[in-house]
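Batch manifest, entry 17 of 40.
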Amino acid sequence: MFTMLSAVVEAQIGLYRNDLSIGVNGGYVLSSVGFSPKVNQTQLGGITGGVSFRYVCEKYFSTICAIQAEVNYAQVGWKEKILDINDAPVINTVTGLAENYSRTLTYVQIPIFAHLGWGREQKGVQFFFQAGPQIGFNIGESTSMNFDIDQRNSIDRVNNTVAQDTMAVENKFDYGIAAGFGLEYSHPKVGHFQLEARYYYGLGNIYGDSKKDYFGKSNISNIVVKLTYLFDLIKTKR
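Output type: structure tokens
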């Protein structure tokens, strides 16, 4: 009797899974860079996409436990909010246009998440939360501006931190923490569809941060909304 009871308790607590899925993902990124000294900004829009992997190892009580990882192409960076003392756009004295400046940084990003889900496992909808470390490698950058650097309107600007406008990325390697939540719809014959909102906070800086450097902090942060499709390669028999 005790043997049977132990077996029942063990089965209820942790149910073995061996599910491996692979797929693709794509979405939209809103990003900025935390500069110190401060640079006034709005969110820069960009795209992200890549391949996704997931391994489900256990169902613990009602929680589906998995590891999910991605290899993504991502456009991040910053867009400057160039204002005068009255919070009005600064007009360039040469072009007569409101000054605009943005920098797009292209990265290969690799997040690795602990993934927890609650709800339908086979057919239906489940809610999920995932969090973990993310690393990135800068593979390019581009600048968009409508004025010449030596002809910017420095007099009317309320924020005169402009060193970043001419500085290339110094630290190609980026690292930080990402977390997100979303909904997943699963169908045994079709696969898994995930809709997720995610936040990333960079712990590294794109520029040097020693006492001799201009910026004490220059870390990337972003908000991502993405759709992921996964199909099963290996699935536990139930």
